[in-house]
Amino acid sequence: MSKISKLFKGGGSASKGRGGPSPQEALARLRETEEMLSKKQEYLETRIERELAVARQHGTKNKRAALQALKRKKRYEKQLNQIDGTLSTIEFQREALENSHTNTEVLKNMGYAAQAMKKVHENMDLNKIDDLMQDITEQQDVAQEISDAISNRATFGDEFDEDELLAELEELEQEELNKGMRDVRLPSVPSTSLPSRPGKMPACHFTFLMIKPCSSTRKRAEDEDEMKKLAAWAS
């Protein structure tokens, strides 16, 4: 019985009791087969070189021995070609099995993930989630309104109309101006008659006329200064 037959026969008996080999076991068997066939290739290549050397050695001196060597070489070459085809088939099967095993593991892990997601979502209610998101949105709006209210400039004392205040200020200025005009005293008319012709004015009359107008002018200047100070303070 060949090694390949023993290999697959042993694999069949082992897998029969367990309901089929696992992907790892099958891949291990395929790699063992590839290794065995590779060694067989090396052996055949060596035999081919040897038979070729024998054929050259005998040549035309011993045609029978040379032809027998060439015939054996041809058989070895045929076996070598068969092994090359077998290795290609096994390699293709091994790659397909590896891909299938990978896909199986991927699907298995995806199934685990789906079960985990299902378990996580068991206690979740979509209606409760909608209510929660609505509450979050409302609280965000409230927080934004509070932030806007805090950031606005304080307007304490700005509830008065500025035009009314200016009008009141003008009335106050006018009252002060009128009061200043009432305090101005005009010089009294002298009781003595003026001279009929130009001449030297008496000293007393000159002194009287000079003192009174000077006092009134100083008073008016002081009133104007007071009004300017008041206007500056009000503005």
TrEMBL record:
Belongs to the SNF7 family. Signal peptide: none annotated. This is CHM4C protein. InterPro entries: Snf7_fam (IPR005024). It is found in: Cytoplasm, Cytosol; Late endosome membrane. Residues 1-24 are annotated as: Disordered. The gene is Chmp4c. It is a peripheral membrane protein. It holds the Pfam family Snf7. One of its GO terms (cellular component) is cytosol. One of its GO terms (biological process) is protein transport. It comes from Melanocharis versteri.
